[in-house]
């Protein structure tokens, strides 16, 4: 029996947006997927993003969450690497 899938929107910022050249992505994952899997997926496609692995914060629906938070269908995910500026 196969698990059903969920569809999420990933908002891209800073290094993630530079890598993908778009402000957001629509992705599908199996039900029960933790938010950190989104980051792993993006890094598989763009290995240069791996340097942000341990310093990226995760947000779901405008709330900061832990990496093991389970995604729900329709969630809006943000991956926020450190940003510099002033």
Query: What's the shape?
Result: globular
- The CATH architecture term is Roll
CATH topology: Ubiquitin-like (UB roll)
Number of strands: 5
Output the number of helix runs.
2
Explain this structure.
There is one protein chain. By secondary structure, the chain is of the alpha+beta class. The chain has a single domain (5-80), classed as Beta-grasp domain (Ubiquitin-like (UB roll)), CATH 3.10.20.30. The protein is 20% helix and 31% strand. The protein has two helices and five strands, in the order βαβαβββ. The protein has helices spanning 14-20, 36-45, and strands at residues 5-12, 24-30, 57-60, 63-65, 76-80. Strands 2-1-5-3-4 form a five-stranded mixed β-sheet. The protein starts with a strand and ends in a 6-residue tail after the last strand. Belongs to the MoaD family.
Jot down its keywords.
single chain, 86 residues, Ubiquitin-like (UB roll), 5-stranded mixed β-sheet, globular
Topology summary:
Blueprint: E1 5-12, H1 14-20, E2 24-30, H2 36-45, E3 57-60, E4 63-65, E5 76-80
Parallel strand pairs: 1-5
Antiparallel strand pairs: 1-2, 3-4, 3-5
Produce a short descriptive summary.
This protein is of the alpha+beta class and 86 residues long. The chain has one domain: Ubiquitin-like (UB roll).
């Amino acid at each position: 029996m196969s698990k059903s899938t969920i569809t999420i929107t990933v908002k891209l910022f800073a290094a993630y947006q530079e890598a993908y050249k778009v402000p957001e992505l629509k992705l599908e994952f199996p039900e029960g997927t933790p938010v950190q899997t989104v980051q792993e997926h993006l890094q598989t496609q763009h290995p240069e993003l791996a340097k942000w692995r341990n310093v990226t914060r995760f947000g779901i629906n405008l709330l900061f969450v832990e990496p093991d938070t389970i995604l729900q269908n329709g969630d809006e995910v943000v991956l926020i690497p450190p940003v510099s500026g002033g």
